[in-house]
Amino acid sequence: MRWSRAFLPVLKETPTDAQIVSHQLMLRAGLIRQTAAGIYAWLPLGFRVLKKIEQVVREEQDRAGAQELLMPTLQSADLWRESGRYDAYGPEMLRIRDRHEREMLYGPTNEEMITTLFRDEVKSYRDLPRTLYHIQWKFRDEVRPRFGVMRGREFLMKDAYTFDLDEAGARQSYYTQMLAYLRTFQRLGIRAVPMKAASGPIGGDLSHEFIVLAPTGESEVFYDGAYEEFDWNQSELRYGDEAGLQGLFDRVNATYAATDETHDLGRWAEVPEASRRTGRGIEVGHIFYFGDKYSAAMNLKVSGRDGSQVTPMMGSYGIGVSRLVGAMIEASHDEAGIVWPEAIAPWKVGIVTMRADDDSTVAAAEGLYDRLRAAGIETLYDDRDERGGVKLGSMDLIGLPWQIVVGPRGVASGVVELKNRRTGEREELSAESALARLAE
Ligand code: 5CA
Fold this sequence. Notes:
By secondary structure, the chain is α+β, with helices and mostly antiparallel strands. It has helices spanning 21-28, 44-63, 77-83, 85-88, 111-121, 167-187, 242-254, 265-270, 293-297, 321-331, 359-374, 388-398, 408-412, 431-439, and strands at residues 32-36, 39-42, 67-68, 74-76, 94-97, 103-106, 130-139, 154-164, 192-196, 206-213, 219-224, 257-259, 276-291, 302-303, 309-310, 313-320, 333-334, 337-338, 349-353, 379-382, 402-406, 416-420, 426-429. It has two domains: 3-71 and 110-338, BirA Bifunctional Protein, domain 2 (2-Layer Sandwich), CATH 3.30.930; 349-439, Anticodon-binding domain (Rossmann fold, 3-Layer(aba) Sandwich). It is built from 14 helices and 23 strands. The strands form six sheets. Strands 3, 7, 8, 9, 10, 11, 12, 13 and 16 form a nine-stranded mixed beta sheet that branches. Helix 1 packs across helix 10, helix 2 packs across helix 6 and helix 2 (44-63) crosses helix 10.
């Protein structure tokens, strides 16, 4: 992408209406613009990041055996009357009437819809277990939307739903999603610690929140530093291996982690002092097992092995995909701007020409841009007619992992400068070597 043709509105000043650094940076670096309270448009740069996060979430769900579908954002009120949640949900639910005076709502979550979809098609124990998910916009009319996409009213969620014949099966499904979550966050390059949660309005007795450490987080957290050592991609952890997954769950339960709501001073005292970690955190995911709460209320039954009627056991599993964009910036930025991990960077490399009025500099930068693109490397080329210093500042602000700075002096001696955004390390090398390095 050429910056001169891009819709990439960066701001020099920090917007005064944004209180936390991720919100400030998302506005300054041109990721989002607010269109109504708690509702945001995703500009091209923000949208690229959102799609990349979504894709990592999708790939890890698929790897764990979940199947993607897509349910609508608008739902019928009748669906929610069946479960009894239409009245229980309260003012967070955005209620709408269509032209025929039918009561509708903008979905805050999809337990009811998935339960009826499943109920209407599935007849036998052979149809279980199943895990279905979608990545779709939700609406919750939060009293105080704040911190940008962190607590929005409209937000993007991955929500998965599991159906099993019995509680033992449902627990395995729960453990499977737990592992998928740990792998998803590890791949995104963030440390998200699973913490036992009070299960809230969704109900159920088995529930964990996944918390990313960040000083601006809404909840206070306490956890064992052992979480910093775990590698959730180790090959011994395999989907389908019941004993292995049980072991994973036992290990998570045995390794202390809690929010202020569930903090247990007795267990905390047993964590070796050197290993105690405290801080604040952002909830990026939440998983729930709720048994037959929806299947019983909505009359979902299948015939069991012995011909009897069985009510499937269910769980639901959410990841705040749009919230993750903010959470990742909270976890990875410096004074100059955002520092994207490579896995989700909007582009891998940014090229900056220091002198847009110098023909040989421009020719070298153009050549490099063509070759990077030919090599399939995602590149943003800042070809704007701006001062070099301004362009370097913008490039730092938007946080691409690599920068190639092309200036007249270097071009004369056959080198460009390759800068690593995270470490700040710079190296002068030939364009060929820079290309080879980035293609690695
Ligand atoms: N039905 C369940 C699981 S699918 C559910 O809705 N869970 S939830 O309420 O915990 O939401 C799942 C995730 O969505 C949360 O962990 C959080 O990361 C994200 N989320 C919830 N509310 C908001 C909001 N107002 N703005 C941004 N993200 C949100």
